[in-house]
Amino acid sequence: MNSIEDKAHINGRRGIVFNIQRFSIHDGPGIRTTVFAKGCPLKCAWCSNPESQKLFPQLMVREVKCTRCGRCAEACPDNAISLTEEHGRKINWDLCSQCFKCTEVCIYESLGIIGKDMGIEEIVKEVEKDRIFYKNSGGGVTISGGEPLLQNKFVLNLIKAFKEKDINTALDTCGYVSEEVFREILPFVDLLLLDIKQLDSERHQKYTGVDNSLILTNARTFSKKVRTWFRIPLIKDFNDSPEDIRKIAEMASELGVEKISLLPYHEGGKSKSFQIGGMYSIPMAKAPDNNHIQRLKNIVSKIGVAVTVGN
């Protein structure tokens, strides 16, 4: 990165994005484009996007596309890649310096880079391609992650740019950020999607790596100031008890939260963890069955809060 690019990052004109997903219907109302910013302070054991956790670009491996041609091993300056007849390609992640030399010679897209340095104008141009769908469906753009507010200056400038284009903006956040960051950005946000994973602080700490007191303080402070949905990732035996959901629903009702979204666990993060050289800490994780999800939905409804499953 040169000095001009460094300055752009410091000023929040550029950021690290790991995906821009068009025609999204699960990240707010209507048809939306979701911009996924890289980096997250939480390390949720069930994370569906483990490639989002680190703030910098990473090597991502797709073994199913590997033809074992050997080009990557020859290009690797760290001797981190080996190939054998018996085991095929192996990557020693302890040796890998993330130089990405291997990706330059892989013609089969078996090796790639997850995370791209992007400028505000470039992202806005991509999002505007689907402007007609936002207007017709009541949609817009959602800034998600990772935790987008780790790149708070970049996200603030990005949301301001969308507002100048009169594009509806939603912010999907875990809430584990300073009050000052929230206060600065929320005036430009049309919808706050706030992840509430577990009210019990001990269980939250155990499975996400952080205490939830800051998250709950922000929820109580800011859900009263902007249209808010609570999003609950449902993981069997972690936060799917009737008591867990009842307490969150009562909190939502007290704060005037518009809706609770129940998001059943899916296994997408399991394979991706291995693709970036990580481990999946709770391979036994499951979603509650459909009957149980319906019972939880009924609990929320009886408390008087709107509830949906999947969005």
Give a concise summary.
This protein has helices at 3-10, 71-75, 101-105, 120-128, 131-137, 152-164, 179-185, 201-208, 213-222, 242-255, 268-275, 290-303, and strands at 14-24, 32-37, 58-61, 81-84, 88-91, 111-114, 116-119, 140-144, 169-173, 191-195, 228-234, 259-264, 306-309. The chain has 311 residues and is of the alpha/beta class.
Protein model, in words:
This protein has helices at residues 3-10, 71-75, 101-105, 120-128, 131-137, 152-164, 179-185, 201-208, 213-222, 242-255, 268-275, 290-303; strands spanning 14-24, 32-37, 58-61, 81-84, 88-91, 111-114, 116-119, 140-144, 169-173, 191-195, 228-234, 259-264, 306-309. The protein folds into 2 domains: 3-55 and 117-309, TIM Barrel, CATH 3.20.20.70; 58-114, 2-Layer Sandwich (Alpha-Beta Plaits). A 9-stranded mixed sheet has the order 7-1-2-8-9-10-11-12-13. A two-stranded antiparallel ribbon has the order 3-6. The protein has a two-stranded antiparallel sheet with strand order 4-5. With 311 residues, it is α/β, with parallel strands linked by helices. Strand 8, helix 6 and strand 9 (169-173) form a beta-alpha-beta unit.
